[in-house]
Amino acid sequence: MYAQMVKTDVARVRSLDEMDPVERGFQERVDAGQKIEPKEWMPEGYRKTLVRQISQHAHSEIVGQLPEGNWITRAPTLERKAILLAKVQDEAGHGLYLYCAAETLGVSRDEMYEQLHSGKAKYSSIFNYPTLTWADIGTIGWLVDGAAIMNQVPLQRCSYGPYSRAMIRICKEESFHQRQGYDALMRMVKGTPAQKAMVQDAFNRWWWPSLMMFGPSDDASVHSAQSMAWKIKQNSNDELRQKFVDQTVPQAKYLRLTVPDPDLKWNEEKGGYDFGEPDWEEFFNVIAGNGPCNAERLNARKKAWDDGAWFRDGLTAHANKMADRRTASKIAAE
Ligand code: BYC
Question: Which atom of ligand 1 is the closest one to the Cα of 91?
């Protein structure tokens, strides 16, 4: 029933009647819930949208290691340190599955890194905020991984096969991440008044940025209509944000935390919470590169890339040597 978005400021999705037969066949397969696989025909816009979203998602996983990595050496116990190490390693794994999924669409890993390092590609706004205390680590697990699960469970049903399959494993690991975060906070809120206050402070700082993870409101979301027509996205940004609030507020109450939103109110009629508007000016500022930690995060990634140059050079030299040897022994055998 849909097709490629016409490139204007307003997202317009074309009807089946407006498509040529090949495109129509593609859309009908998507509408019927069939998976699209790498070597199959796809509209160029579909391919580009996936490369954009999957690579941004991969970058988010890799950059997302940085705020938590900041606390590995300062975790309060050996057990918490082992858990945090495992979580941060999982995020590296998620990045790798996702880079592989994007590569199936014809973009190279080097190109994707270049886009990240030059600031052309985005990564999740959430990772541009600092982790000031140990409570931030629990709060990230609870809220950030919680928001990620809310967003990523529907992505398991994405129409593009490699992305949807990568999501299945990622979601399983995100569930563990969320539970470890909540568990760390449960322990802290049962502790001293200072520990409880630390959790409330972290919650106050991470609540609004977590709501922004779902993207701009639906009326400002340029890609949603077409992405939903292609079944890349299954839900709009506002739908998922609402589900996240409804799920998370009772969890906050269980921790005896106050949600930092004076407009938060249960709405019996809609069966969900009404809540305040995130500060969209702050959001657009952060994704434009001007958040509190954007420069620090990008510099850390660029440094890691530069520091790894000797290793990439070594691997390339070794691969070339092996290829030369294979060619030489083939010639000798002829
Ligand atoms: N941050 O038309 P819209 C994790 C951009 S990692 C930055 O609604 P779309 C974890 C958007 O890209 C979780 N930019 O876009 C890791 C677009 O700009 P461009 C990461 C954002 O794509 C480590 C513009 O705003 N999750 O869980 O339809 C430790 C207009 O937006 C953001 C994913 O990447 C944002 N929050 O919808 C712990 C999930 N929101 O590209 C945890 C996959 C929007 O035109 N991605 N923008 O320059 C998606 O589901 C979708 O891409 C989004 C946005 C819902 C994020």
Answer: 23
